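Journal club side-thread
Mid-discussion, someone asked how the predicted structure for our own chain would compare to the paper's figures. Pasting it here so we can look after the session.
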Amino acid sequence: MFRRMLIGGFTVLLLLGVGRIADAQVSVNIGINLPAPPALVAIPSSPVTYAPSVGANFFFYGGQYFVFQNGGWFMSARYNGPWAAVAPEYVPRPILGVPVRYYRHAPAEWRHARREGPPPWAAHYGRRWEEGDRHHEGFRDDHRDEHHHG
């Protein structure tokens, strides 16, 4: 009986340790170290807000923070992380629809894009970002009501 409990306890500890290692690998340091939550400003005609005082492409939508940096997206439930890399097809459509003018550090390849329109994602990611209908289709309309009435 004691041997079973010892083996069971060891197995649980091993599994908990492996889970912590997996968590550590998911978290990414993107260099955002804010002393307090940043002031968020609404983007006109969008359920997304952004932080003009932060020196990064820093957005908030649906209870999550999003940062676009070095050609990739990162997401966190907290303003200071921990951050997780997000594949383009899992970034909510309202975030991808934020006009270029709200990006603090727009990539050089966007210099010819309309500042009042969304970035040219197809050129950046190919058609991949349009995949995953359950992540994009109707997302703007569903969350717009939550944003304005929640």
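Post-session note: Residues 1-30 form one domain.
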